[in-house]
Amino acid sequence: MKGVIHRVIVEDGLHIRTDIAAATLTWSHMAHVVETPEHFLYDYAPRNAYYTPRRAIPEATIAGLRDTLCRLLGPRVHLMGGAAPSIPGGS
Q1: How many CB atoms neighbour CB 17 within 10 A?
Q2: How far apart (Å, rounded) are the C-alpha atoms in residues 36 and 89?
Q3: What is the pTM of this model?
């Protein structure tokens, strides 16, 4: 795919938009999210995933992204280091 791909994390899911198409993957349909040293992988079906390169995410926002993903997906989030961040008021 050519051009810029916009990815936005919101309460209802992952929004993906290009110049020619747009899609929303709801969190209820997301199998899991995996953080690697190079990407955040959003697995939505066997052998299918969207990704966001870590280099495209400002370092100052990584902790907030982790917290948001943990709040929205719970045990379906697998972060580097294996531990989910502590979420105030979470279970």
Answers
A1: 14
A2: 27
A3: 0.79
| CA nearest to 20, candidates 41, 9, 6, 10 | 6
Name the region of 81 (left: φ>0; alpha: ψ -120 to 50; beta: rest).
left
CB atoms inside a 10 Å sphere around CB 44: 17
Query: Do the domain assignments include residue 88?
Result: no
pLDDT digits (tens, 9 = 90+) for 25-82: 999 999 999 999 999 999 999 889 999 999 999 999 999 999 999 999 999 999 986 6
Q: Is residue 45 part of a domain?
A: yes
Query: 25 in a domain, yes or no?
Result: yes
Three-state secondary structure string covering 19-42: CCCEEEEEHHHCCEEEECCCEEEE
